Amino acid sequence: MVDPNRQWRLAERPEGTPDRDVFEFVETEVPDPEPGPGEVLVRTRYLSVDPYMRGRMDGTSGYADAWEVGDPLQGGVVGEVVESNGTGFEAGDIVTGNLRWADYSTAAGTDLRPVDPDLAPVSAALGVLGMPGRTAYFGTREVAQPGAGDTFVVTGAAGAVGSVAGQVAALSGARVVGFAGSDEKVRFVEDELGFDACVNYEATDDYGAALDEAAPDGVDAYFDNVGGPITDAVFTRLNLDARVAVCGQISMYNATETPAGPRKLRHLIGTRATVEGFLVSDFAPRFEAATEQLAEWVRSGDVQYRETVTEGLENAPEAFLGLFEGENIGKQLVEVGEETGQQ
Amino acid sequence: MVDPNRQWRLAERPEGTPDRDVFEFVETEVPDPEPGPGEVLVRTRYLSVDPYMRGRMDGTSGYADAWEVGDPLQGGVVGEVVESNGTGFEAGDIVTGNLRWADYSTAAGTDLRPVDPDLAPVSAALGVLGMPGRTAYFGTREVAQPGAGDTFVVTGAAGAVGSVAGQVAALSGARVVGFAGSDEKVRFVEDELGFDACVNYEATDDYGAALDEAAPDGVDAYFDNVGGPITDAVFTRLNLDARVAVCGQISMYNATETPAGPRKLRHLIGTRATVEGFLVSDFAPRFEAATEQLAEWVRSGDVQYRETVTEGLENAPEAFLGLFEGENIGKQLVEVGEETGQQ
Questions:
Q1: Does the CB of B258 have a partner CB in chain A at under 8 Å?
Q2: Buried b / exposed e across A97-135, counting CB within 10 Å, b at 16+?
Q3: For residue A152, what are the domain limits?
Q4: A33, A136, A244, A247: which could form a disulfide with A164 (CB 3.0–4.6 Å)?
């Protein structure tokens, strides 16, 4: 097999908001490298682009390793096994793992997990049944912990994580309020996901007033994907024993200097509120159970999801950059290769 | 008994930093009012002034009720029972409770607790064996939770709460680093309290560099009484699973607008750090046990304490205002009346 293998590398570290120059598209041959013992050659079907990758570009995330200039970009991939070299996988199996932004990747079989195409379309393994879905699940149930009758607020409500977080909170009996960045997103969040209310933050500067209307009883649990002025408004409206789960701060990822905002720690004292950062990886021993629960909710219709699919590996940078412009509804994916029908 | 009863009232709400005009000194007669059934007349020995009272002056603390203009000021008092009207107390008993800034107060017997003069000088019931000591005890052990080998950082390290918090943390085996506002305080904290290091924050603007030197292994537990730029520097140096106890934010209490600072929530994600506000009142069922433990440590010398005593009820406003200038070392008290020897 001597197919071309297109792949993306980091061309330079971005300063502030990245542009296309950060990415370099190169072509090698397949396999690259040859799968050794216990390794698998995977043909990419879908590639995930996620906000946290911005931190890998300059090493500021504090948790995901920095990419060096020249490194192949990597992320969540769903693909098809082309060749298996003494692993439990067989050609045609659908797998997921952390692989290259490339047509093909070589990976250790132990770094891959099987994807069950009967659970949901295989792309869901990168969204509602993958890292974003599990992030929403654990961040909501284990960190923000909304209870019945609580008001739960989530930013990035139309995004891959926020859209699931709100629905998980609703299943706990919470009143769910989202923030999203367009009327279309608000309609999606309210009408399709069934949130009790959603604020279009692009249509107002007064997030406090918007919250007073959407969450008149204050905020008991807050799932923050965005940070910045919306979070400021929430902090001033936290109820007694409120819990804040800090999942992401996408509004800050492209900043060249730490943005300033009002100091809000004082609001934690009277409320005895807790603010806790988390990473989904801390819950790894329970990933399988979470995915099963999410799959059950997807089957029952309790959890709805949407994907925004960009066609073509060559457009992966645009798909990634669009995350910071709020262009996606639900999970942003890149479709790299079609189904071969080998299944 | 027709003695004069001097007392302080709120003359006006302060704007920003309060001055003497906020306080009105009035004179009534004793008793005022006459103790009814189940009530006690108490002669004030010591009066506590505490930073949280600033919030009561304009109702911004979020937890302590606002004083209305004309209201008598109130706070922790240690006094001597002059007259008991069908309570378990007897004349001469030393008691503590939340009473007026006055020569004499009338209170329900059920609102008073006995003070054991054999435990420590009775003024300690307003400091190390009172609310500040318990705040330090629970905030350290239950919220910040420093373990053996952890680095524990506390602001306001020479103050009533911080001085005890650091010693409680040291008893858990933590390396203890303080921030205080003068060389004299630093000597007190390092030499008398035995902290491993103390930074004079008035002698540097680069709190980050000071922390890198005093806490080279990062910060595992942070007890914050002050807020502002020191807290910013700590947030950037939090270790994995660090815990932040937000006890006070004295640097902000006199602000007329919420001060701005760098947005730091992002640092909580990779570290999975937790920031939690608390009030000592949440631990009320365990107050007695905490006081006993603190008294034992005071007796054994494991916990040292100091008091700054301002003489005379007429000087209570200056004692209070001095808190925001950092004039006190250890617990700031006002001595109102001397021991009568009735004991």
A1: yes
A2: bebbbbbbbbbebeebeebeeebbebbbbbbbbbbbbbb
A3: 131-281
A4: A136
